[in-house]
Design brief:
This protein has helices at residues 38-48, 53-73; strands spanning 14-18, 33-37. By secondary structure, the chain is an alpha+beta fold. It has one domain (7-73). The mean pLDDT is 85.
Length: 74
């Protein structure tokens, strides 16, 4: 049985971040949550929107590869 998160665990400085957003089918089990400092949580969503960590990693990997190709061509 998956453990559900409890909003009472917020200490005022941290926010629960869903690894797979609820809007995209994620659930509220503790294995789908990461506790983020409020500023980092806001920054994540400002920069990456609702992208998952895996999607962000794939995007950044593509950027790095593209930069390497540009260096070879110049």
């Amino acid at each position: 049985m998956k453990k559900k998160y409890n909003r009472k665990h917020h200490d005022g400085r941290n926010r629960h971040h869903f690894l797979l957003p609820k809007s995209r089918g994620g659930d509220t089990s503790t294995c789908n949550l990461l506790l983020f400092d409020v500023e980092r949580h806001r920054a994540w969503h400002d920069i990456f929107g609702n992208a998952t960590a895996e999607e962000v990693l794939n995007l950044l990997t593509r950027v790095v590869r593209a930069k390497k190709v540009q260096k070879v061509e110049t």
